[in-house]
Design goal:
By secondary structure, this protein is mainly alpha-helical. The protein is 77% helix and 0% strand.
Length: 57
């Protein structure tokens, strides 16, 4: 996850690890909910790529 942009890391930590709602996560980051959803989608793409690369090693 360290290879992903900070914004993606933040949404993963707040939304999935800290279990904040979308509204709460967007509020903490001071971004619109739509931006949060976009960052989350890209973060999951990045995570999938990392996991697939590690499985191939």
């Amino acid at each position: 996850m360290q290879t992903s942009p900070l914004g993606q890391q933040q949404v993963v930590v707040l939304g999935f690890i800290e279990d904040l709602s979308e509204a709460d996560t967007a509020g903490v980051l001071d971004i619109p909910t739509g931006s949060l959803k976009s960052r989350t989608a890209w973060a999951l793409v990045t995570l999938r790529q990392v996991v697939c690369e590690e499985e191939d090693v």
